[in-house]
Amino acid sequence: MNRNTAVLNIVKGDDMATTKAFQSILSVDNLGITYPGGIEALRSTSISFQRGEFNVLLGLSGAGKSSLLRALNHLVKPTSGKVTSAEFGVLNNQRTLRRHRRKTAMVFQHHQLILRHTALQNVLMGRLGYHSFWRSLLPMPRADLELALHCLDRVGLADKALSRIDQLSGGQQQRVGIARALAQQPDIILADEPVASLDPATSEKVLTLLKKICAEDGITAVVSLHQLEYARHFADRIIGLANAEVVFDASPTQLDDTQLALIYKQAPTDLKKTSKTKPAEDSATNRLPSKTATQLEIA
Ligand SMILES: Nc1ncnc2c1ncn2[C@@H]1O[C@H](COP(=O)(O)OP(=O)(O)OP(=O)(O)O)[C@@H](O)[C@H]1O
């Protein structure tokens, strides 16, 4: 069943709780992204993201995941089509964009933290969007400090508040990245390959934390991943991209070998041979097994 049909059917059922669960928070309409030089990263794509949903973007390298994700707050400018925030409207002017960005936090693969600053100072950066340029030159208000400490506590790093980022492990750094996103008090978190630099055990911990926090705070997440097993495990909804187009958009339970073949452009029989092993099973080396579906995406 097409996802939109499924949503409509439920909404028609007049179940108010379910209707609320499917409230759109952000949508893209006929979105196209073409980079200078004519590389088409996204072709006329329309998607509606629902409040509180944990969305995972899957696809081969170059499929268009980062471009779509970054277009959601205009870090990449769409060439055609539009992005609409349910709260602030179409992102077609600076004022709307600023308001939308303030409530849309980003988590990056390489954290984008300032290494020689403390964890607390980095988390406080999440508050900058709430202050004027001039105000941000002064020490941050006490309420912001308390909020930043609370965010560090939620990611289990209260005791590292005064540690420099370059004294933390990769997993701890990413948790600081999540705390900084939280300090923004966002409605939406965009996470671009947030666990690509982490080992499997740490990746699972970071994704578990991100999912838990989003569920607790009703945050909508759009997360690009290269690991199929994590997508299956954590996503409420998987959006599969191939060749700059959405080729799959449904719950993980509907992602069968035929659909995977569309995303990874392989024959379903080839996928069967390689899609069974789970990433955590190769615990001896703490690396992904050499022939798992998780690596189909990386190929
Ligand atoms: N700044 C850019 N300038 C020109 N072309 C770009 C730029 N960024 C991305 N592209 C191209 O756009 C296409 C989509 O790239 P994108 O980074 O969105 O894919 P992706 O699915 O996120 O890939 P990956 O998983 O490797 O990050 C690719 O062909 C890529 O080379």
UniProtKB/TrEMBL annotation:
Occurrences of domain ABC transporter (ranges): 26-268
Region (Disordered) location: 272-299
SUPFAM superfamilies referenced in this protein's UniProt entry, alphabetically: P-loop containing nucleoside triphosphate hydrolases
Keywords noted in UniProt: ATP-binding, Cell membrane, Membrane, Nucleotide-binding, Translocase, Transport
Record-level Gene Ontology MF annotations: ABC-type phosphonate transporter activity; ATP binding; ATP hydrolysis activity
InterPro entries: AAA+_ATPase, ABC_transporter-like_ATP-bd, ABC_transporter-like_CS, ABC_transpr_PhnC, MetN_ABC_transporter-like, P-loop_NTPase
Biased composition (Basic and acidic residues): 272-281
Transmembrane domains' residue ranges: none
Presence of the UniProt keyword Translocase in the record: yes
Polar residues biased stretches: 283-299
Compartments (UniProt record): Cell inner membrane
GO cellular component, one term: plasma membrane
Topology versus the membrane: Peripheral membrane protein
PANTHER family: AMINO ACID IMPORT ATP-BINDING PROTEIN, PHOSPHONATES IMPORT ATP-BINDING PROTEIN PHNC
Name of the protein: Phosphonate ABC transporter ATP-binding protein
Organism: Methylophaga nitratireducenticrescens
Organism lineage: Bacteria, Pseudomonadati, Pseudomonadota, Gammaproteobacteria, Thiotrichales
